[in-house]
Batch of 4 targets.
Target 1
Amino acid sequence: MPELPEVETTRQGLAPHLCGARLSKLLIRERRLRWPVEAQLPRVLRGQRLDSIGRRGKYLIFEFQDAAVLIHLGMSGSLRLVESNVPLRRHDHLLFDFDNGRQMRFHDPRRFGSVVLTRGQPLEHPLLVSLGPEPLGNHFAGEHLYTRSRGRTLAVKAFLMDAHTVAGVGNIYANEALYLAAIHPARAAGRISLQRYQRLADGIRQVLSAAVRQGGTTLRDFVNGAGEPGYFAQHLNVYGRATQPCHHCHGTIKLRNIGQRASYYCPQCQH
DNA sequence: ACTGGCTCCTGAGGGC
DNA sequence: TGCCCTCAGGAGCCAG
């Protein structure tokens, strides 16, 4: 499942090979993604130079001269650079050919991902404009979490995973950050002190930046732009470790559903 | 304004 | 061994 570190890993892998190149051809093989891929996409982008690849939360922003493309990887999506003579795989839905000979393939078995065209300021697009702060940016701190959570009764883990609270913190890293901050995932968001939220913000930064350094977490099939896996899985403290011993207290890691999502935690360490 | 539930989809994995 | 069934999971959307 691509989360922020996997998306950032993808961005860093693609940018050096594609920025500055012109899109020579775009083939849409399957337009039924989260939203139907706009039929005009190839016509609008053809011949345009790719100026940059940015990221906002889990959205990648491909900025061309006169338009931008927002790509979300959903939970099974990936973008890979290949030689154009590499055989197509099932679920290779979009093929982007660039004039430097590179081809980028959007692959997504479950089709929860999206490829959206925007002609205006990408950051003002409805999908991006109301996102919370970037967790690895300069404006993210415990004060923000504390202020936003006053009066809220939902579980802190669901609060964290809401992209309007903070952008890009998904299930794996929400579990890990709450463990680092010793906060129980089911605790009501509005009943956590400023001091504990500061510790949580630190935990989020810590776990996300470590995962970016490791090239992301490969659980099942995540690969970067070159088709390589990430190595953060071996640093996970709780995610996927139900019934195994806590690294801190040696108690047993528990699994339970919170907000319809698998939540892993140490009942002894987290309150 | 919040909150929880539904929805899209496929492949992995468990049960028999 | 192989088939069938269940279900996870991001996040937009909607109803209460």
Note: Chain A has a mean pLDDT of 92.
Target 2
Amino acid sequence: MLSLLKPNRMQVASWNVNSVRTRLGHITDWLKTNPDVDILCLQETKVVDADFPKAPFEELNYHTYIYGQKAYNGVALISKTPLDNVRMGFGAILDADIVGDLDDQKRVISGVLDGVRILNLYVPNGSSIGSEKYEYKLRWLALLKQYLIKTLEETDKLNVCGDFNIALENKDIYTDEKRDTHIMSSPIERETLRDVLAVGRSMEREHLKEPLPGGLADAFRKFTDEGGHFSWWDYRAASFRRNMGWRIDHHYLSPELYKQAKRCWIDLEPRKLEKPSDHTPVIVEY
DNA sequence: ATGGCCGGGGCACCCGGA
């Protein structure tokens, strides 16, 4: 009877796998060794829906929700229990005229698990500051804000996770060198993401310290203050061995969920394997 | 100072990644 009264603990993981087909064994192995993970959010699946390897996940009793394209991008949700109200792309809730070309690349999928909407994102990389891809990244983030505003009209329990391709603080990067002119740490990218995360924070509350009472807050920083914790390491220059990484994969939680959060951690193990993804999973429990 | 290494497409490198 007590179990009916106490809310279920949930674990949500985010992992940019850099090709779901190439990383299939790593992913299924990870699910087996992490049986408490309720939902795994994948980015960069790099496969059209017809060719997504659903069977290996279904054999492990997971439900798969996929939104992919050829060769690039692609996101998926791998869930122990069926999800409610699954949505693909910005266009699921925003008008086509404001979405424009921003759903051409498959980067957005979400579903509701136990009353919490889980939004899985693969934010554009941006290539280099000032490039066409950089402008696309900033436009994409501006549309994301509109998407979040609309989403928060229907729920106050929201976990926005994924590969954000932005490190918000200097301590999220192994070095201070050139960060102001580097993609993923430029002042404009950081300012744009901070503005996105401020959704739901009323004007009167703007002066108050983060993360409460409004806006989305970084689950990892609820529990860990120091730098040196990363989720991505360049394949080149033995970056992982030297821990020359970036923390660019995140779980941003709405206030109620942030209060509930019990743990948030980075699992380094998959990055140590042969032929790893360049990212490693980030898990939140609430 | 620069670039290093990957995956996909497709069969020679090129695009994109971050």
Note: Residues 208-212 of chain A have pLDDT under 50 and may be disordered.
Target 3
Amino acid sequence: MSSARGDCYPPGMTTENDAPADEHGGPWLTSGELDSWLSVVRLMTRLPWAIDAQLQRDADLSMVEYMALAMLSEAAGRTLRMSTLAENTSTSLSRLSHMVKRLESRGYVRREPDPADGRFTNAILLPAGMAKLESAAPAHVAFVRRLVVDNLSGERLRRLGQDAERILGRIDSPAR
Amino acid sequence: MSSARGDCYPPGMTTENDAPADEHGGPWLTSGELDSWLSVVRLMTRLPWAIDAQLQRDADLSMVEYMALAMLSEAAGRTLRMSTLAENTSTSLSRLSHMVKRLESRGYVRREPDPADGRFTNAILLPAGMAKLESAAPAHVAFVRRLVVDNLSGERLRRLGQDAERILGRIDSPAR
DNA sequence: TTCTCAAGGTTGAAGATTCAACATATGACC
DNA sequence: GGTCATATGTTGAATCTTCAACCTTGAGAA
């Protein structure tokens, strides 16, 4: 099934790659491990690209922008701190700051310093932003269904989410 | 386990989200589907970021650059057409062209028009590029093992790869 | 031959992201 | 109060990606 051949990952070592198929911890990847990893790499590359393309085409939004608007739409008072929003959308504060500035200039969002603690900045979803989100949502959700949710059995989707969480756990863990 | 709450995805509709848990094709996502999808989104966002950070820190390479060098290292004559390389690394030709120009300026790669058909351009891995790749590979493979390969059972890794392929199939399929 | 066309690739400008430096606000400590 | 340290955000420059326009090569038709 893999169209991109697997013998390209660790470099120059393919002949020594025939170790027992499921032994953990070896120096290189076995050919089965490599196939799976390369599939994951392609998924990480192309799925965001596909989602972005759909949203861009149908709503002139990037996926991160959609996520940010969606997070705000569900928050109390349609308001979140910049730092919370950055955490929840997995983006850097700097990127978010630039991004919100653009959303602000489009009239979807506004910012104000938190009245209770001036260190924080609150991002607030405006009616135009809510309208934008509501108009973008149906096509976006349908697309996600077609590519992912309806494309896997309930059980496999559930496991996919679990595997993702397990990998994310390692990413967040304090190294080693 | 999900730290970012799920009630932020389709916007403004959470109260109607209590449909039967595994019914396919509804208008919105059920809360379980949403959790899984958001986990996948976070994975797509953070895993490439983590891999890039490791490679950048240890080898001053991005993941796409690493992939390109690795593909070339395994190709016959350490040579591939630009278009093939773009396909195999899931990047646009334009992005690849800029990227290879940078790799060229670092002495890792060179380009030449295909002698047999001048429409194609061949990218060729130079010894310095091979050396770079070999020095980067061990730490990179170890990192991929720690995050993904050794973090899931053989069976789950295999299924993860299959799910990825299944989703990729939909992405490549001619719409609808 | 000559014309036209499609495919492969490059380029420069515009747009987005990253990086490091810089504010600013608050709390802790003296 | 005054000073220092820390956490939150912002900004501008550098870098990277995307987008559209363009160039070139070779194939095929007239």
Note: Residues 62, 91-92, 94-95, 98-99, 102, 113, 117-120 of chain B lie near DNA strand D (CB under 10 Å from a C1').
Target 4
Amino acid sequence: MARRRTLPRAFYARPTLEVAADLIGKVLVHDEPGARTSGVIVEVEAYIGEDDPACHAASGRTPRNAPLYGPPGFAYVYFNYGVHYLVNAVTEAEGHPAAVLIRALAPFEGVGLMRERRADARRRLVKAASVPRPIPDAALCRGPGNLTCALGLDARHNRLDLVASVLRIEDHGPGVLDGLGPVAWGPRIGIRVGLERPWRAWVAGHPSVSR
DNA sequence: CGTTCGATGCACT
DNA sequence: GTGCATCGAACGT
């Protein structure tokens, strides 16, 4: 197994767009004993400050968005649409609300467990009469709600320290993304405001990137 | 191809 | 009561 290094606090304590760019190709890990799941980050979005209308901090500090105002290198996980959890890495500095939303992974470790979790979740959602299509491996962590499902992440992981907990992001060295496309930038997805800011980054042409 | 829409919980107004 | 940083089935073209 290649050498792996957990990203240090200083990685996150930088301008959010730099962190977002550098997170592409790193590995998001949920290190449950005997059930590790992980994937290479291939799509992210930056949400930066109270001036960003799409950022959860746009209306000021609330109990929900408090982690955004905390120190960098912690997880901000929240529940959305009554269905999905979304995971962010808090960036910048304490008092500067900003984070990077992890939107898609190329499945790496624990792919079988990911398949089970996604299939279970879909069976719960789909009508009993219809037969769900099998989920291709490239789609297991395609989309922010899908990747938290596949990795088994939920509200328990909110506020966890990405530098020292079961939830972390690792650098597996250069070469992880060999043979894949370059990083592209464009407008963020699924928001109605702040579309003029091209703060979504993804690996061009990668099959695990959301659409 | 494209668009619509239901499922579902909760923070915030 | 409203509106989501979603997903994917179902339907129209």
Note: The mean pLDDT of chain A is 94.
